[in-house]
Amino acid sequence: MPLDWCVFWYALALPVVAYGAYKMRKLMKASRDVLPLLAVSGAFIFVLSSLKMPSVTGSCSHPTGTGMGAILFGPWMTSVLSIIVLIYQAIFLAHGGLTTLGANTFSMGIAGPIVGYLVYKGSMKSGINMYIAVFLAALLADWVTYIVTAIELALAFPAASGGVLASFEAFLAVFAITQVPLAIVEGAVTALMFKYIVMLRSDVLLKLNVASPSIIKKLKDMSV
Amino acid sequence: MKMELIVLAILVVFIGAFAYVSSTGNHKWSGSDDQAKDTIDKLTGGTYQPWAQSIWTPPSGEIESLLFALQAAFGSLIIGYFLGYYRAMAKMKVASPSKSKKEI
Do B83 and A43 touch (CB under 8 A)? Predict the structure, then answer.
């Protein structure tokens, strides 16, 4: 990634991460009992982003796992969780690298989670089943991450003929199709995680304002 | 149990699609980020040279897999530990809500 874009994405991502870290500190002070769930959300990103899965297109890619954190803790704090994973991968795996860290944090830690968060809130308002809302949120958070990555690459490497738009199409062709099946799997696995959280720690969901008491009660009565 | 079955079904379809694609054609199964690198070369005519080197690259593919596996193992450990912890806690609460009070 060229230097100017590297600086640009860092400048965009770092304030968000800083604010997320600030919010995280505040939350930790206010309610320590949500801490394990924060760790689980981070661990979920760790696991999913380490899994390089073959896709139907004959190439491999990995899910992001940011949907869960975004729904539970919001996009701000998810950006902090993401940057931890991305730093690990950049330093030890030469995967992504430090120059692209800002851009990666923006696509995976900020853009994806924001979309996931909004999709979750929006679909909960429409009254559909919470697990379906989770599924859609995680699916789109994953997919948008890769669309934004395509945009970032297109801006950095505009095609000689056709410019940014032509580049965008070329990069989208690489990422978008590979990612669709993976995003579906990620959505399903995230929804399953939420089933266990509803089962075991529904009090935390109430506390974090993720679902209302009536929805939790309905989900508990329904055996899924 | 219903949701576990749905997830399982999605995984089976996913694996089935993988098996079908890999048996019908000649694919490299390379990473999509490497493909993006190729696309960069194609778009810029190979003029782009990365201006920064990675501080450290895994010496081999095996070691890279090790680090990815460590990452996954560490994550699963945390998830499993806390879900198990919550589960036991919920069970204790149901089993003896009054008894535990008396004992104290």
Answer: no
Of residues B3, B44, B55, nearest to A224 (C-beta): B3
Q: What is the mean pLDDT of residues A30-56?
A: 83
Q: Are residues B17 and A181, on separate chains, in Cβ contact within 8 Å?
A: yes
**How close does chain A come to B29, measured CA to CA in Å?**
4
pLDDT of amino acid B98: 57
As beta bridge partners, residue A163 has A159
Which residues in chain B are contacts of A95 at CB distance < 8 A? 33
Q: Are A108 and A16 in contact, with CB atoms under 8 Å apart? A: no
Task: Write down the mean pLDDT value for chain A.
Answer: 84
Give SS3 for A125. helix
B51 versus A21: which is more confidently predicted? A21
For A3-221, CATH number out of 1.10.260.40, 3.40.50.720, 1.10.1760.20, 1.10.760.10 equals 1.10.1760.20
